[in-house]
Amino acid sequence: MSMKEASDRLDKVLANNGIGSRKDVKRLVRQGYVSVNGVVVTNPEMHICMERDKVVVDGEELKAKRNVYVMMNKAAGTVCSTKSGPHATVFDGLDEYYRGKFLGGEIATVGRLDVDTEGLLILTTDGELNHRLTSPRYSVSKIYAVRLRDSVSEAEQARYAAELSAGMHIEAEDNAPAADCLPAEISWQGDDSCLLTVSEGKYHEVKRLFSALGNEVVHLKRVQIGSLHLDESLASGAYRELTDDECKTLGVM
């Protein structure tokens, strides 16, 4: 069965969309308060297709969602973790609605950004999309705006570009082993700033690449994932749901 045709138990759909506990919704259904496609149903275990069937609860149509897709402009100083600690998590700022459970599961970040890294972060309940955007198999590009500690001359800029485009070796850091990185593309915006495009998600990859080049990243912001651009109108830490067109650019049905 395709994702578009997926079916779910009626009581699960109702409970996961805020109608009540599983016990509460079973009672509602058995008492005749729920109709599917205009027909009153009394079996809470019947299967429905959310994308095809019209569900009405006590006279109000249910606008159920299988998955949610959120764009956040991650703030520096926050972590991509559900665990509390010395830093706030990106989940702390989400409305309670997004922290609930959907039919697709619970919301999670698509990959991670370091605590001091800002910018584009996708959060979704869609595990298939999450895998596709983060798996090395698909080589989805990520673009970062980088500011460096040291200014770089034109000759050195050319060296950086040549070494990055050939693929570079990065040394071990923390628990991450040394690694050979896939080619990356650099576009200079100034003598100490650039856009860097990578197609992997190795631990601290951007920082380690510039360290290998003899420089240091002092500010890092992700501005694009695949063809999805960060909405620059989003304040630091703010978020919104992706538009239908943005979902399509990511391959969401």
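[next item in queue]
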Amino acid sequence: MTITCSIIGIILLILLLGKTSMHFKFKKQVSELLENAETLSDKIYNSSQLTGLPYPVQQYFKYALKDGQHYISSVQLEHKGLFKTNLKKEYITITGEEYFSVQPPQFIWKGTTSMFTAIDSYIADIGNLKVSIMNIFTAVDGKGITFNEAELQRWVSESVWFPTNLLPSEKIQWSALNTDTAKLSFSYKEVSFDYIVTFNEAGQIVAMETQRFMTVAKREKWICRMSNYKEIDNIKIPFAAEASWKLYTGNHSYAKFEIQKIAYNKNHF
């Protein structure tokens, strides 16, 4: 009995140490991201900037932003939701904590479930996906140019939560397709890709589609759908997002997130 209790105690201690270690590593990465973030709040949005943009893009910015809006430099958010570890498996519950910087493009996300903790990031021009079982055993540690591209694609699609980042810039350009879609072209260092962005009659972005690496060797159609728009700090953003793979077998959703908290331009945690 004494030996059994000792073993249980050791296991619990190992789990606690693993959780504590991951917490401090994550906070260290967050600090690095926020220290790298440039302040853009001196830049101010004006609807005159929209001249020449495709019609649905102009409608989106008129809907999402108000004249005089200061540009967003950094973002912090928390979410709840559902996640699939495999397209054939059932959803499990997940909570997430995420931080973004706009210039340079950076983010870090920690997703926590009862089974694993995942940290997805793009910091200092390096993309990385790390998945740890019980905060101890590393199941995935993905790096390289395919991860750089995939993480930047995530950063762009999640810019709907900080829409001043979607205004035309050196990295982002818009071109016309039709009355309810437009092409967003992104280029940063060695990475470039396009999104097909769909808008509804209200001017909301409701879907963003691109070709994304599903494996390190193959891209597939990837779609992020947005809904439940609300206003916060005079900005209208979606509070719900769903990510899916569009395969020959159909659409396969694997992540559904609902924003619980979001804050802008707070360079601390």
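[queue empty]
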